Each structure stands twice: as structure tokens, then as C-alpha cells.
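Quick start: read one record
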Amino acid sequence: MFEKVISVFIEKIEGLIQSGKTDLNKAEDGISLCVKTLSKLQKLVERDDFEDSQVEINFFKNMKPIPMSYLIYFTEVRSCELLLPKAGNSHKVRFLEKEIKKINKFFSANNSFVNYMEQSHNYLDFQFFSRGGRRDFSFTPTINYYQNPEFSTSHDMLWAKVQALYRFIHYIREKLELIQPGSSGDFRERQPKLLLWTGSKTSLVEIIYALYLKGDFNHGTADLKTIISAFEDFLNIKLPNYYKTYGEMKRRTDPKAKYLYEIATILIARMRKDDEK
């Protein structure tokens, strides 16, 4: 039941991110969408609750943080858009650099918890993501969690903020580059242009979509546009019509993931050949 709500939310969020609206308008629309989604999830929890503790932990660890993290992210973006100095690039850059310092301070203060999550540990999940877990655990959140005790755990809000700030970092990086190209150099080292993608763009889009859907970038918080941009930078290529390309891929006859099938076949064949030596 939760999966359907989250699936619809993700589809709407992707559409909003790809829209031509300003960052401020995206943030305001995003906040509204997040609040409505969280309200739907809360009503489902209140009505049906959870089958067992594992379902509960999965919800507070992997589902609720999706709309909650976007709510925090869009709130941060809205605040930044409204408070960003209106004149003087140097003032704007200074403001954004201060935002980066705040983010670094947050991650430093919550280093133990972030490390626990980044290492994909689960031995403390009951404490962190179950309503029956302790509220005074040593990995203390630096932000207040949602006040309704039936719709929150000690750390689901903190985990949502971690994911939100991963997105916010990318927003600041893009903002810095627009204001003063090269000003984000200290924030993100630029990769030397040594690699060129010489395969088809369709094949690359196929790989990117698979990686995006697997959710292995930033704990699944990286949106498709961010991942596309990273690949464009790294491989010195432009992928302007990736949504259209994906649509064309879906209309293929089997195998629909043609390139992934081919490279998997090549890899398996090589492994078997190596084993025969």
C-alpha cells in the first residue's frame, strides 16, 4: 500500500524537477506535494499500522524519508532563493559558501550516524527506525523529529535530512557555477577530460537508467537529472533527450535492455573463459 503512494510521488517529483519552472516555484510546488504525500502515508499508518517490526523498520528507513527528505530539501531551496543577495556576485558566492559550511557542520555533528547508514549497517535499525526503539540513543539527532509518536522514530527525520542535504549540495554547486563559473572548484574537484563515450547515446542512457533505478547513488536520493549531469561531465557528452530515449527503449521488442544484456553476456563469457584456464 505504501509502495503505490511512493511510486506516484517519485513520478510527480521527477516531472516537477524536469519542468521549466524557476527554482523558487519548483520548491513551493515541491513542498505542497511532499506535505500531501506525507499526509497520505500518515493516514495509512494510522488506519492499517504495520504487519511486523521489519515492515515498520523498512517504512521508516526507506519509504517515509523519500517525501520527507524532499520536503526538507525544497524548504532549504526556498529559503536560499529568498535570502540569496539580489546584487553582487561576490555577496552571492559568500552566502552560498556559508551554506556549504552549515552543511559540513551538520555532517560533522552527525558523523557516527551517517557512517552507520553509509556502511549499510542494520544492527541498530530497531533503535533508529522502530517506534519501539529508544528515544535517548547515543546517536542523538541534531534536529527535532516529527512530533507525532505514531508516525516517527528517533532517527527517521535525521536520515531524511541527511538525504536532503545530499541534494542541497548539488543545488548549491549548480548555483555557484551559474553565478561565477569555477567558484565551486574548492567544493568539487574537476575531473580531467580523459574519457570520451564512444558508444551510442542510447546505450549510455540505458546504463544510467539502470543505475538510477537500482538506487546506488547517494543511498537512492540522487535524482535522474543529477546522475545524467554527472555522466555528462565525466564522459564529455550531452544527453539532452534522455526521457525521449527511455520512451524509445520501452517500445523495443525483447530484450528491452539490449545493451545491458550484451555487456552482461560479454562479462559472463569472459569469467567462464578465465575459469577454464
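Residues 13 and 262 are 32 Å apart (CA to CA).
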